[in-house]
Amino acid sequence: MDDTPTDMRQVRLRAEALESLLVERGLLMESDIDQVIAQFEQRVGPVNGAKVVARAWTDAEFKLRLLADGTDAIREFRFSGGQVERLVVVENTHVEHNVVVCTLCSCYPWALLGLPPRWYKDPAYRSRIVREPRSVLAEMGLEVPASKRIRVWDSSAEIRYMVLPQRPDGAEALSEKEREALVTRDAMIGVA
Ligand code: FE
Q1: DSSP assignment, residue 95?
Q2: Whose CA is closest to 30, among 42, 40, 18?
Q3: 106 part of the active site
Q4: Contact residues for 150 (Cβ-Cβ < 8 A; gap 6+)
């Protein structure tokens, strides 16, 4: 959908009309809506993925479990948001860079990363990242050294991927919260 201010205004008006109708008919309470919004604003989002990454950077045993079975390893965090019933975590190394796409639509691990960014749903990203990942990443500001192999992971209805970025030098000296703050959403998709 085109994101011009006019379109956004129309969407907002439609959402508001729908909301007041549902509330008026007693099908929905306003507090339900507030809860859903709070859910996605505060409890679901890249901050969850960052916790997992920060932990894997310092806990080798957890990292092994995470790479072996992502869904099982993150269970202890009790994240809500869903879309991680089969989570596969792929690790960036000095020889390999990973990037995630959903070529068919916009499958994405909500519980870890929140709602997907607009460009993730863009048909241009979805088709080009497979054919020419190095150029697309460069356009997005990430120059992957020629010595590194790039692997593109195509999400599906069953499998959701998350990238485990390389731990920056010196990160082990930071506090857990500081480490989490280093992890960005885009790094966990593999485009930063
Ligand atoms: Fe999809």
Answers
A1: S
A2: 18
A3: yes
A4: 96, 97, 98, 99, 133, 134, 137, 144
Q: How far apart are the first and last CA of the chain?
A: 25
Question: Phi and psi for 141 in degrees, rounded to 5?
Answer: 100, 10
Residue from 20, 80, 105, 127 carrying the catalytic annotation: 105
pTM metric for this prediction: 0.81
Q: Where are the beta strands (DSSP E) in 40-86?
A: none
Contact in structure between 89 and 164 (CB atoms under 8 Å): yes
How many angstroms does the Cα of residue 153 sit away from the middle of ligand 1?
12
How many whole angstroms from 106 Cα to the centroid of ligand 1? 4
Structure tokens at 15: 């959402």
Q: DSSP state, 147?
A: T
Q: Is it the case that residue 4 has pLDDT exceeding 60?
A: no
pLDDT digits (tens, 9 = 90+) for 81-130: 788 889 999 999 999 999 999 999 899 999 999 888 989 999 999 999 99
20 is catalytic: no
Please give the radius of gyration of the chain, using alpha carbons only, rounded to the nearest integer: 19
DSSP state of 86: T
Place of tokens 């979805």: 126
At 191, list the tokens. 């485009």
Residue 175 is among the residues annotated as catalytic for this protein: no
107 in catalytic set: yes
Q: Could you count the other beta carbons within 10 Å of the beta carbon of residue 76? A: 10
Pairing of strands 87-91, 96-101: unpaired
